[in-house]
Amino acid sequence: MKNLVITCGMGLASSALMMRGIEDLFARKGIVANMIKCNIDQLDRHMNEADCIVTSVPIEQTGQIPVVLGTGFLTGIGVTELEAELLSYFD
Predict the structure, then answer these.
(1) What pLDDT shows up at residue 60?
(2) Number of neighbours of residue 1 by Cβ within 10 angstroms
(3) Which of 9, 62, 73, 89 has the highest Cβ tally under 10 A?
(4) CA 37 → CA 24, 58, 66, 81, distances in Å?
(5) What contacts 67, CB < 8 A, 6 or more positions away?
(6) Per-residue confidence band for 90, with pLDDT thresholds at 50, 70 and 90
């Protein structure tokens, strides 16, 4: 099972909304993943277990871990492209 880390500035509203959008997407596609929600200051703690990071704030280098800007789940803009990008990491 892959691990998805979802982060925002405070680890509250934005990450919760992004997580809900991802849960809906994964449910439609039959994907099971472990999701970890955190604030940006906690991200370093979860880097070693992350297969992909979804964020609403810019983050620095993550090595080989893919980073997806998840703001489409907040704004409704570009959701189709965002979902396709996320799905590409969970084949």
Answers:
(1) 79
(2) 8
(3) 73
(4) 16, 16, 16, 22
(5) 52, 53, 54, 55, 59
(6) confident
Q: In the prediction, which pLDDT does 9 show?
A: 87
For 2, residues 6+ apart whose C-beta sits below 8 A from its C-beta are 33, 34, 51, 52, 89, 90
| Residue of 58, 61, 60, 45 whose CA lies nearest to 5 | 45
38-86 pLDDT, tens digit each: 999 999 999 889 999 999 998 877 788 999 999 999 999 999 999 999 9
First to last CA, the chain: 11
DSSP letter for each residue of 10-59: SSSHHHHHHHHHHHHHHHHHT--EEEEEEEGGGHHHHGGG-SEEEESS--
In this predicted structure, the answer to whether residue 29 has a pLDDT above a threshold of 80 is yes
Structure tokens at 40: 């940006």
